[in-house]
Every structure is written in structure tokens, then in C-alpha cells.
Write a structure and sequence with these properties.
With about 290 residues, this protein is an alpha/beta fold. It has 9 helices and 13 strands. It has one domain: Rossmann fold (3-Layer(aba) Sandwich). The chain is globular, with a radius of gyration of 19 Å. Bound molecules: NADP nicotinamide-adenine-dinucleotide phosphate. NADP nicotinamide-adenine-dinucleotide phosphate (NAP) binds next to helix 1, strand 2, helix 3, strand 5 and strand 8.
């Protein structure tokens, strides 16, 4: 395949996984504000700069492909406690919408042929309502964070730049401690064990999808990116609790959860992508 110049905006765990898997194929640069954590090596060039600032401009001009994947929390932290909710939403807005508006505005002014922008969005754009949430379905706004994600997608679509939006399920894989918080509990309440269907995907599969997008030349499309597993919160938490020896205590039934289905057929049919990484239950038992 033709090597491309790939700029990763928000070079965190997903960015590093992409670089690990594809640095021999593509020229890759990663942008983040702070140096890499001690002991973390990277085979690609790191630019320490804010995404929305001038220092990123020469790198945007260099790129054929931009992977837009900053995150507003601390790497590895589920518990972002201590923050004021409004402050959190403002930071979330700046990270996603603010940075997206900044780069698309600059590309619109500076570049006759802007790079393809691949936005790593989230299945969190869908409301927690029952139904089948395929990519084309109009999305009602339910919460401030969800609205920010939707506005970020719309800002990219409206910018006129070639784009692909990947609405990813919850990520797991190397360097992620998603479920360690469960291990810090002394008990798990039965009320938490809902039948909510989970959408999950190994971060290496997300990287595989990104690479498939680059290879295929597909643009102006939105894809749900979640694997084929069909776990409910109850199945997954029960499995983890058992492995970690956390007792499940009867505190009454869990609330009834909406049967929210997020199909991945379009990804398989349009991009021909086959998921290759183990589902989360198998991954966690390795
Ligand atoms: N975690 C999930 O389950 C999930 C699910 C669906 C989608 N996603 C999306 O997947 C993407 C990748 O997530 P991840 O887990 O790889 O995130 P991560 O490990 O937290 O990395 C995000 C990186 O973005 C950088 N960053 C944040 N703001 C920046 C700014 N203004 N300028 C430059 N760099 C900035 C941070 O580095 P500095 O602090 O050094 O700048 C950090 O290294 C995110 O967009 C996230 O929303 C995640």
C-alpha cells in the first residue's frame, strides 16, 4: 500500500497503538501537549504542542491524513473526580469542538487540498434510548457531552474537508485499565448489574479500521466501530467480579435498561473489515 503522511492529533494510547502497528507502513507524527510519560518509547516523531495552536500548522500542512483523537481526561483515569461538572463540560467542549473548529478553520484558509480527517468519535453520540442506532438515523440530544460530540462531528462535516467519522464503542487493550476500578471495590451491588447491551472494541481493531479507511480512500462516511460481542453489563461485571474475587451483594434488582442496539454491518460491508482481536472477556483473562 502507498505510505501516507499521518498526523495524529492527541497522541495518547490509541495513537501509540496505531504507531506501534503501522509505523513501518506510514510516516507518522503525533501531537500532544506534554512529553511522553517516562519509560514510554515511540517509534514516531512527537510534537509537543496544543492541537489548536500555530505550532500545529506546519504539521497539518505536511499531512495526507489526520487522525483526530484527543481526550479531555487524564490517560488511564475513569475516576476524574473532584472536578466541577460545568468545568468538565467546558473542557470537554474545548477538547473536541474547540480543537476541531480550530483545525478545520485553518485548513479552510490555508489548504486547497486539505488532508482526510478521520474523527475518532464515540457510540456515546447515541442517546440511551431503545432502538437500532444505525449511522444514518437522526440523533436526538440527551446530554451536554453528547451534544458536544455531535457538534464536533457536524463541524467536521460542514468544513468541506474530506472526512470519515468512526463512532467507537468502549476501548480496551494494552495500556488501558478500564476495569481496574472494579477491583478497588469491596463488593458489587446487584443493582449495578443491568441488562444494558455494551458496545466494545479492542483499540488495535480501531487502528485496523483506521488503516482500512486510509487504504480504501473512502470519504464522507460515518461508521459504527464495535466488535461482534454481545455482552450486557451484567455478564461482563459478573465475570470480572468472579475473577477478582469481589462478592456480589443483593441490593435489589437493577433498573430496566433500554435495548439500545448499535449495528456494525456498514463497517463490515462497506469497508470489508473483519474484527481480529479477542472479545473483552477473552482479553481480560489473558
Ligand atoms: N476510551 C474510550 O472508551 C473511548 C471510546 C470511544 C472513543 N474514544 C476516543 O478515542 C480517542 C483516543 O482516546 P485515548 O484513550 O487514546 O485517549 P488518551 O490516551 O487519553 O490520549 C489523549 C491524548 O490527547 C492529548 N491531548 C488532549 N488535549 C490535547 C490538546 N489540546 N492538544 C494536544 N494534545 C492533546 C493528551 O496528551 P497531552 O495531555 O500531553 O496533551 C493525550 O495524550 C479520544 O478521542 C476518545 O474520545 C475513546
Amino acid at each position: 500500500m502507498t505510505p501516507r503522511r499521518v498526523l495524529i492529533l492527541g497522541y495518547g494510547r490509541l495513537g501509540r497503538a496505531f504507531c506501534r502497528l503501522y509505523h513501518a507502513v506510514h510516516q507518522i507524527r503525533g501531537v500532544k501537549r506534554t512529553p511522553l510519560p517516562p519509560g514510554v518509547e515511540s517509534p514516531c516523531e512527537i510534537i509537543c504542542a496544543p492541537i489548536g495552536g500555530e505550532a500545529a500548522h506546519p504539521h497539518l500542512a505536511w499531512a495526507d491524513v489526520v487522525i483526530f483523537c484527543p481526550a479531555s481526561g487524564r490517560e488511564g483515569g475513569r475516576d476524574r473526580g473532584g472536578h466541577d461538572r460545568e468545568q468538565d463540560t467546558a473542557r470537554y467542549r474545548e477538547t473536541y469542538l474547540g480543537n476541531m473548529e480550530a483545525i478545520t478553520a485553518w485548513m479552510g484558509r490555508a489548504s486547497a487540498s486539505p488532508p482526510v480527517v478521520i474523527l475518532i468519535s464515540s457510540t456515546g453520540v447515541y442517546p440511551r434510548l431503545a432502538g437500532v442506532w444505525s449511522e444514518e438515523r437522526p440523533i436526538p440530544v440527551e446530554s451536554p457531552r453528547q451534544e458536544v460530540l455531535l457538534l464536533t462531528e457536524q463541524a467536521l462535516i460542514r468544513s468541506g474537508a474530506p472526512f470519515v467519522i468512526l463512532r467507537c464503542g468502549g476501548l480496551y487493550g494494552e495500556g488501558r485499565e478500564n476495569f481496574l476500578w472494579l477491583g478497588r471495590k469491596t463488593e458489587l451491588s446487584s443493582a449495578e448489574l443491568t441488562e444494558e447491551p455494551l458496545s466494545l472494541v479492542h483499540q488495535d481493531d480501531v487502528c485496523g479500521v483506521v488503516n482500512r479507511v486510509i487504504e480504501s480512500g473512502v470519504t464522507r462516511e460515518i461508521f459504527n466501530v464495535r466488535d461482534d460481542s454481545a455482552f450486557t453489563r451484567k455478564t461482563l461485571y459478573t465475570m470480572i467480579a468472579k475473577r477478582l474475587g469481589i462478592p456480589i451483594v443483593d441490593r435489589g434488582p437493577a433498573a430496566v435498561s433500554a435495548d439500545r442496539q448499535i449495528p456494525n454491518d456498514k463497517l463490515k460491508q462497506r469497508l470489508g473489515y473483519q474484527f481480529s482481536r479477542p472479545p473483552i472477556t477473552a482479553y481480560l483473562s489473558t
